[in-house]
Write a structure and sequence with these properties.
The chain is an alpha/beta fold. About 45% of the residues lie in helices and about 15% in strands. The chain has an eight-stranded parallel β-barrel with strand order 1-2-3-4-5-6-7-8, surrounded by six helices. Strand 3, helix 4 and strand 4 form a beta-alpha-beta unit. Helix 5 runs parallel beside helix 6 and helix 10 packs across helix 11. The protein is globular and about 55 Å long.
């Protein structure tokens, strides 16, 4: 089922976020996209400096029969470049577009805003456009002032920063849905299996993780972080506030063991149906 069909049907959506290779290497790109087999309904392709562009990778995945989500980065992008990218996406059949600011350095005099990108992308035929939500920003009113123009410009869903505890997301999610009830909230989720990974995520996001996460990692029980991940997924899947999850891994190339653990957590949480038991 396509992302658009899933949203229309009100189904809980599961996506996987991946990093493309440094250049066009379809076998590596597809291996990463197929980490979880057919469990994800779509593959989010990150835009990173020094990597194959998200749009190019999205086009390659679409050609291979894998539904991608193009990360349209506005930082450093002019209106002319935006129009060219949207035309290329439309010609290639790319309809899922997440508009984000991006974190690389750039200096473009006529740089577009995320609102501009949402508006232009939503005019793209059959496009499902998303924007991002940082639930960790203390000034929730400022977050809404920044987000609502993007929703009015055509964004149909918002994707959060990584969630390790539903309660940390609840206030922001409730505020968004109160202001825009039709908006779908897709929560980013990732398993953390080491204190090193936790430290790096805290540094990247500039926030402190819930104490329970550190307690779990410090326990030395290798299964405990996965149980906590499944619990978080279960809380997200059961919440009427949340319309789906976008999964990411700490590793660029996750191992088969990580994939198996993530699939087990998805099944245990009810986010996707468990495989049928042979008679």
């Amino acid at each position: 089922m396509s992302l658009a069909d899933s949203f229309t049907a009100g189904r809980f959506t599961v996506a996987l976020e991946i990093t493309p290779p440094k250049s066009s290497l379809p076998h590596i790109l597809q291996r990463r996209a197929r980490l979880l087999g057919n469990a994800p309904g779509a593959i989010n392709v990150i835009q990173r400096p020094g990597r194959q562009s998200s749009l190019e990778a999205a086009i390659e995945l679409h050609s291979a029969g894998i539904e991608p989500v193009w990360h349209l980065v506005t930082r450093g992008k002019s209106r002319t470049a935006l129009d060219a990218d949207l035309s290329a996406a439309q010609a290639a059949g790319i309809h899922n577009i997440l508009c984000i600011r991006g974190d690389h350095d750039a200096d473009t005099p006529d740089e577009i805003t995320i609102r501009d990108a949402c508006e232009a992308a939503s005019a793209h035929a059959a496009a499902i456009v998303g924007a991002t939500l940082n639930q960790y920003v203390p000034d929730r009113a400022a977050v809404l002032r920044n987000l609502l123009p993007k929703l009015r410009a055509g964004a149909r869903y918002v994707q959060t920063q990584p969630v390790f505890d539903l309660e940390s997301l609840r206030p922001a999610a409730e505020a968004v849905l109160e202001a825009s009830p039709e908006t779908r909230i897709v929560a980013m989720a990732m398993p953390l299996t080491s204190l090193e990974a936790a430290n790096r995520i805290e540094s990247r996001m500039g926030v402190a993780l819930p104490p329970s996460v550190r307690d779990t990692l410090a326990s030395g029980d290798a299964d405990a972080p996965w149980a906590a991940f499944a619990e978080t997924l279960g809380a997200l899947a059961a919440s009427p506030l949340i319309g789906g999850v976008a999964l990411m891994t700490f590793e660029v190339d996750a191992t088969p063991e990580t994939a198996a653990r993530m699939l087990a957590a998805l099944h245990a949480s009810g986010a996707i149906p468990a495989p049928a038991t042979p008679p």
